[in-house]
Amino acid sequence: MAKERVYSRYTRDAATLLAKQIQLGRKQRKWTEHDLADRAGISRATLQKIEKGDLRVAIGLVFEVAALVGVALFEAERGSLATQIARTDDKLALLPGAVRKPQKPVDDAF
Question: Which residues form the HTH cro/C1-type domain (predicted)?
Answer without folding.
Answer: 22-74
